[in-house]
Design brief:
Radius of gyration: 19 Å
CATH architecture of the largest domain: 3-Layer(aba) Sandwich
Distance between the termini: 22 Å
Keywords: NAD, Nucleotide-binding, Oxidoreductase
Number of strands: 12
Mean pLDDT: 95
CATH superfamily of the largest domain: NAD(P)-binding Rossmann-like Domain
Number of domains: 2
Protein name: Leucine dehydrogenase
Strand content: 15-25%
GO molecular function: nucleotide binding; oxidoreductase activity, acting on the CH-NH2 group of donors, NAD or NADP as acceptor
Shape: globular
Bound molecules: nicotinamide-adenine-dinucleotide
Helix content: 40-55%
Family: Belongs to the Glu/Leu/Phe/Val dehydrogenases family.
Low-confidence stretches: none
CATH class of the largest domain: Alpha Beta
CATH topology of the largest domain: Rossmann fold
Number of helices: 12
Amino acid sequence: MIFDALDFDAHEVLHFGHDAATGLKTIIAIHSTHLGPAAGGCRWWTYASDAEAVTDALRLSRGMSYKNAMAGLPMGGGKGVILKFDAAPKTESLLEAFGRTVDSLGGRYVTAEDVGMSDADMTVIARQTRHVSGLPSAAGAAGGNPGPSTAEGIFVGMRAAIAHALGKRDFAGVRVAIQGLGSVGGALAEKLAVAGAVLTLADIDDARARAYAARLGGTAVPVSQIATTDADVFSPNALGAGLDAETIDGLRVAVVAGAANNQLATPTDGARLHARGILYAPDYVINAGGIINVAAEYLGQGDAASVARAIARIEGRLADIFAVAKAENLPTDAVADSMARKLIGR
Ligand code: NAD
């Protein structure tokens, strides 16, 4: 069954870990180590079923292979998920048990934070394994919480998208609807506000959206309205798989550019966006800022300044993808996927 599943996509390893003492249930998917150790964060999340957790790990891990390859990193792609449920609270013991699971893979998988995990959690995991990144970093060094680096990548990538789709060189007066104001979405909103964008903001935590709107001068709307907001850009920064036939039909923007992983619900949704004339910034290309930062930390290469230069290159990389997609009249995700597959030898 699993080997034939669409999302299995020739993964090298699908590892199930369980720790009876803490209740830890974790799934680590390693898609490819062709370019180096499989790097990708770990998500702590509530899943409706174990099968849903497996699918999430598989899809996220393939995304990391593509992301790391397209970011020019000597890293493969993998991802961890920890199942969140009442009987297994995120204690230090549980995180240590996860660290031992990561360590048992001998460096084939390198973890970092994703949704639900923090740099403080990585410090606890690091007691049990050295194959961890995203640890708190000293000023000027690479590493630390990847959220701000990811937000910087989204900002420059969105700039490439508005240049291509709208002929705009900067964000002055550009209307951006942001879904999710967490570590990435919040930092992105701040940057866009400074750059003169007009913001519409939504978060399942309404008070959070209102506080951001009051501070940055935007408008807060209910979560149910953000994807149909009349704007120039829709920026998904909550969870993945938000772009399906229904949401795509309802979009009233020229560009989709945000950090959420696996934004396209099915492989045909990229073509759906293309057919509607909406420019889609492939998620794993635009959201690579965080992994560029934590990979530099793990590999011990570079400082904050060289990481910033690498993140800035996301703008040109997306401009290239948009140009090829336009020249060949192809969906942008199809162009990026074929570039990425070539890089990982698939
Ligand atoms: P986060 O947990 O800090 O923030 C997510 C925010 O989205 C929270 O404020 C939450 O309340 C809100 N939210 C959840 N569901 C929502 C919904 N339906 N509508 C509106 N808001 C909703 O997570 P993050 O680190 O900011 O990551 C955001 C997304 O970007 C995730 O999909 C993550 O996988 C992806 N991503 C993050 C990074 C990173 O460096 N943190 C890197 C690459 C990709």
